[in-house]
Design brief:
single chain; Rossmann fold; binds shikimate-3-phosphate
Length: 166
């Protein structure tokens, strides 16, 4: 199987970066995050891209970054929370080892709070979270080869669960 050793998907704030880094350390491979790729390539934050150009322009930039990273990276790769909205990306994930880090809405509200750096949660976080989860849960499940619940677990516990499940 070519491509990343493990791809991490799941909602923003679920801990993909922290767990991804821990997994990479445990497995002795490198960690890469497509949000970081986008910020480096664009020279602006994700929030700035949303404000300057809107969500659909961001999704096009994201799609290119995700497809590039899937082709180039052989370690642990974390995707932005909305990357699975793209059908072409979901098709590319078929045949990959994909861990979906999940959390329920209340955990999501608790973890992300009123973080204005996340453009999709700027107005009413609980309502927006509920809608995001309803729209996306089945897409995460569609691409996942393992589902790891993170509610009430530390990043170290989630990492152990992922290592067991993968
Ligand atoms: C988004 C998730 C973010 C980032 C952008 C949009 C989403 O990534 O790509 O704010 O649509 O869920 P993280 O999941 O890494 O926070």
């Amino acid at each position: 199987m070519s491509g990343p050793l493990v791809v991490l998907v799941g909602p923003m704030g679920v801990g993909k970066s922290t767990v991804g880094q821990l997994l990479a350390d445990r497995l002795g491979v490198s960690y890469r995050d497509t949000d970081d790729d986008i910020v480096a390539e664009q020279g602006r934050t994700i929030a700035e891209i949303f404000v300057d150009e809107g969500e659909s322009a961001f999704r096009a930039i994201e799609k290119a970054a995700v497809h590039r990273a899937l082709a180039e990276h052989d370690g642990i790769l974390a995707l932005g929370g909305g990357a699975i909205l793209d059908a072409g990306t979901r098709a590319l994930l078929a045949g990959q080892r994909v861990a979906y880090l999940s959390m329920d809405v209340e955990e999501a509200v608790k973890r992300t709070g009123l973080n204005a750096a996340r453009p999709l949660l700027a107005v009413n976080p609980r309502k927006q979270w509920r809608e995001l989860m309803e729209a996306r849960r089945h897409l995460y499940e569609e691409v996942a080869t393992a589902v790891i619940a993170t509610d009430g677990r530390t990043p170290e516990e989630v990492t152990e669960a992922a290592l067991d499940a993968l």
